[in-house]
Structures are given as structure tokens and as C-alpha cells.
Write a structure and sequence with these properties.
Oligomer: single chain
CATH class: Mainly Beta
Largest sheet: 4 strands, antiparallel
Shape: globular
Number of domains: 1
Radius of gyration: 18 Å
Strand content: over 45%
Strand order of the largest sheet: 3-2-1-26
Number of strands: 26
CATH architecture: 6 Propeller
Number of helices: 1
Order of helices and strands: HEEEEEEEEEEEEEEEEEEEEEEEEEE
CATH superfamily: TolB, C-terminal domain
Length: 310
């Protein structure tokens, strides 16, 4: 059962970029960008690059899958998931390639780390077994992929969601550190928000009325908007909505190619996303004021899951 779920998960991790298949350098912006560079099959590396396309460096590589990277808010560390231990676990490494440290140690699948704005906690998705207390005893629950938070050193793990009828992916912290937006999968994808500390309050569905599947939410630095990928079954585009789920706006409708995996620049003026122009998946940067799109990478590659931090 766990092996089947892991294969399903890895399929989901590349599903957006895989489904995409079938200029000059962008103006330099602030920060650093890290992304997942796919090779053959399920193998992937973690790569760092400057927002102007310079300084590209493979930070983590190997014969196993290394993916879902996330830069710490100060840009000094990268959290990522890797299968080097036989099953996906969360590790952290300094942006200079030093101090590789394992954070999770569980037979479950642990993926999709996301840093809190103060860099003190990490949210992630896991299918680990958890215990529910009932009158007169307790029961072990295997609900599938759910959201957890832990200290940045891997301690003090707490569960935020737990529903056997769905799966929770792609956590993204609000700028004030109080909420986490994520992708909830039942029949299709929806975007929910949940308190970043366990409160017992049920998660809130921000997209109950949308007719498209919605993926990979990311907050704007001012907390006013949430960016995401929307799949209408005829085209995949990057959208923006208010933090309350209202006023949904397509940002890449003028771009004739499929788009996925948005990430927002630290100053909130640009977004980066993956797209299948020329039948390969490269990364592109779009200025939000005029919607001009320019390539960040121009390879015969397969790049996804960018994370942008100062």
C-alpha cells in the first residue's frame, strides 16, 4: 500500500510539468531561485540560479530523485525531499552546498517542505500514520498525504490536517506566518487555508465555486494575493486571486503555452513559472505590471517547482 502511494505521489509531483508537454535573459531581480531539474524517469536534481539567469549551480544531484526544493526566507538554506534513503525524506542544505542535514526519519513519504516567514519552522506533506484519541482509547489512522509542521531542525512535529477522504499537498505560508495555503485533492484540486498551529478549526476552502482544478498556491509578499496554476482541461495558466478567494484573474492567458508552478519574487513585482514552449519545459519570468514574459532557462530541459527568496 505504501509503495503504491509513493509511486502515486511521485506521479503527482511531475504531473503538472509532464502534462505541459503534448528571448533574452530577464531583467535582474532580487534574491535567488532554486528549482527541480528532471532527468530521465523519476530522477531529478536541485539547482540554484540567479534571477537574471547567471550563476547556475547544481546544488544536489545523484542517481535518486531530489526535488520539491524551497529556499529559506533569508536565502541561505534550501530544504528539499530526496529518495536517497529509499523513501522520500526532508533534508536541508546550505546554499553554498555545505552542511547537508536530514530532518525527517520515518518510513513514510515526506515531501514538499515550505519555510515559515521567520525561517523557524517548516511545513511539509506526509503520509505518516498518526494516532487519534477516542473515548476509552485511541486508533491509528493512515489518511494519506496530510500537512505537518516542524521546527527547522526537524523537532516538534505537529499535524495540521487529517482526512481519509482527501490528500493535502504544496503548503505555502502566509507572510504573517499565521496561515498555510495548500492544494487539497479529492476528485480534483482545490485551494484551502489552515491555521499554521493546530487549533481544531477546520480548513477553509477558498475555491469552492471554481470549475477548474487548482494547484500549487503561493502568497504575494504583502499577503494580499494568492497565485496558483489553474487547469481548465483545455489550458493550464497562472492565476491570481485575493487572499479571500475572490477576484480570480488569469495572468498568462495571452501566453499560448501551458504554464505551471508559480513563484513570486521577494519584492512582489515578478513571478516565475514553468512552461512548455518549444516542447521542452523551461522556466520563465513575467513582470506583473506589463505581463512581459522572458525566459530564465533556455535548455532542452524539464524544469519545475521554482522557489524564489531573497
Amino acid at each position: 500500500m505504501r509503495i503504491e502511494r509513493r509511486h502515486l505521489l511521485l506521479g503527482l509531483l511531475v504531473a503538472v510539468a509532464s502534462s505541459l508537454l503534448g528571448g533574452c535573459a530577464p531583467k535582474s531581480g532580487p534574491g535567488k531561485i532554486v528549482f527541480e531539474a528532471h532527468q530521465e524517469g523519476e530522477v531529478a536534481d536541485v539547482v540554484l540560479i540567479n534571477p537574471d539567469g547567471s550563476g547556475r549551480k547544481t546544488l544536489v544531484q545523484g542517481s535518486e530523485w531530489n526535488g520539491t526544493p524551497a529556499l529559506s526566507p533569508d536565502g541561505t538554506r534550501v530544504a528539499f525531499a530526496t529518495e536517497r534513503d529509499g523513501n522520500p525524506e526532508i533534508y536541508v542544505i546550505h546554499a553554498d552546498g555545505s552542511n547537508l542535514t536530514r530532518l525527517t526519519d520515518n518510513e513514510a513519504t515526506d515531501v514538499m517542505p515550505a519555510w515559515s516567514p521567520d525561517g523557524k519552522r517548516i511545513a511539509f506533506s506526509s503520509d505518516r500514520v498518526f494516532t487519534e484519541t477516542l473515548p476509552g482509547g485511541s486508533v491509528e489512522v493512515l489518511a494519506g498525504m496530510e500537512l505537518y509542521v516542524m521546527d527547522a531542525d526537524g523537532r516538534n512535529i505537529q499535524r495540521l490536517t487529517g482526512d481519509e477522504a482527501d490528500m493535502s499537498f504544496y503548503p505555502a505560508w502566509s507572510p504573517d506566518g499565521k496561515k498555510i495555503a495548500y492544494m487539497n485533492v479529492t476528485d480534483s484540486g482545490a485551494i484551502y487555508v489552515v491555521d499554521a498551529t493546530p487549533t481544531g478549526i477546520e480548513p477553509l476552502n477558498l475555491t469552492p465555486n471554481t470549475e477548474m482544478a487548482v494547484w500549487t498556491p503561493k502568497w504575494s509578499p504583502d499577503g494580499e494575493y494568492i497565485f496558483f496554476m489553474g487547469d481548465t482541461k483545455t489550458k493550464k495558466d497562472i492565476y491570481r486571486m485575493g487572499a479571500d478567494g475572490k477576484n480570480v484573474l488569469s495572468l498568462t492567458g495571452h501566453w499560448p503555452y501551458a504554464c505551471a508552478d508559480p513563484a513570486v519574487s521577494p519584492d512582489g513585482k515578478q513571478i516565475i513559472f514553468a512552461s512548455d514552449k518549444d516542447d521542452v519545459v523551461n522556466l520563465y519570468v513575467m513582470a506583473l505590471d506589463n505581463k512581459v514574459i522572458k525566459p530564465l532557462t533556455q535548455d532542452q530541459g524539464f524544469y519545475s517547482r521554482p522557489s524564489w527568496s531573497r
